[in-house]
Amino acid sequence: MSEQFDAVDVIVAKRDGRRLADEQIDWVVDAYTRGVVADEQMSALAMAILLNGMDRAEIARWTAAMIASGERLDFSGLSRPTADKHSTGGVGDKITLPLAPLVAVFGVAVPQLSGRGLGHTGGTLDKLESIPGWRAALSNDEMMRQLEDVGAVICAAGSGLAPADRKLYALRDVTGTVEAIPLIASSIMSKKIAEGTGSLVLDVKVGSGAFMKDAERAGELARTMVELGTDAGVRTVALLTDMSTPLGLTAGNALEVRESVEVLAGGGPQDVVELTVALAREMLDAAGRPDADPAAALADGRAMDVWRRMIAAQGGDVDAPLPVAREQEQVLAEADGVLTTLDAYAVGVAAWRLGAGRARKEDPVQAGAGVEIHARPGDTVRAGQPVLTLHTDTPERFGRAREALAGGVVVDPQGTPGRRAPLVLDRVAAG
Ligand code: URA
């Protein structure tokens, strides 16, 4: 079969800063999925997009082409409205775990199709897989049934959704082209639109532990995704939230599940509770439940009831003890003073090196590995006091984890106690 375009012409057009025609975009995404456009050609195009950008219409068309590469789910048969949340990824970001059951308390179905972690940010499925018996893979029918019966499901995205993105994301990961805003926005939104949710709340992370290190670029990513969602008929809102320091007091799979259960039991760290409630309010508002009171449902155990049913429905034993790493070591404060920096990226890399994350996507993760945090930025500490506990099954990893933390834990003898950056930095809605 003769092809409609030549890949080199498409690459050259974007290399020279021209906009791509709709037909070129449709063709190149489809031909790449079919294997006609080679990896090296798509790499060159991805780099040209990273350097020269795309306008709003090009990004919308690219997203539509990625959606068209696979199946679309349809939740219109459910008796409840649907709402989903997506985080661009951070350290200690376990919010999906308490959030999905919390929103379901109010009769809104939450289809949370999640991924595994790669690099220094953890994956929701890796966290839940530390619960004995819990199963990530569900058929579409099982997912629908659970959404109708329990109201919340967190499971692996099937391979049928946006296969073009799956292939392109793996390529970007090894060609230095992850950070392009048009490519990130279309990657995330193609999966969310294909998933068929009625409303979507985006948690766009800003800071050292996030893809976007500064608020300006994070704001541009948020606006691009909100426009894409809105144009596709999905009620979409984004919150920009701080990721300069880890969220909560744990980073690592079973450690984060334990903390999420504390939040569902009405306790847990204040920042995790604050962000869970803020995102729940946005999801409930977008799904037509503006009067719901998520803070009350978290405090009085209603969200915990849904959590227990959600985990049990996927084979998880909610009462089984969570795995604990075989070895622990503490990181101590070096002086009296105020902890002024606890860097999210440093903690994320340390948790990853301890075994909580993977270097290649086929690597196993250690359920018990990670970092436990005893002091937060703004806290006063004394020399010799534990700031972190490192957990791993393989103690030879402690050295590399400590190297990752060098410069990331700063105690200033002259620091001002109690100063914490706000967690929610901005909100972006359709204009
Ligand atoms: N998450 C995605 O799904 N895609 C990206 O490009 C970045 C984060």
TrEMBL record:
InterPro entries in alphabetical order: Glycosyl_Trfase_fam3, Glycosyl_Trfase_fam3_N_dom, Glycosyl_Trfase_fam3_N_dom_sf, Nuc_phospho_transferase, PYNP-like_C_sf, PYNP_C, Pyrmidine_PPas_bac/euk, Pyrmidine_PPase_CS
Enzyme class: transferase
Domain (Pyrimidine nucleoside phosphorylase C-terminal): residue spans on this chain: 338-412
Domain of life according to the entry: Bacteria
GO MF term set: thymidine phosphorylase activity
PROSITE patterns: THYMID_PHOSPHORYLASE
EC code: 2.4.2.4
Keyword Signal assigned: no
One Pfam family of this chain: Glycos_transf_3
Keywords assigned: Glycosyltransferase, Transferase
Record-stated family: Belongs to the thymidine/pyrimidine-nucleoside phosphorylase family.
SUBUNIT field: Homodimer.
Name of the protein described by the UniProt record: Thymidine phosphorylase
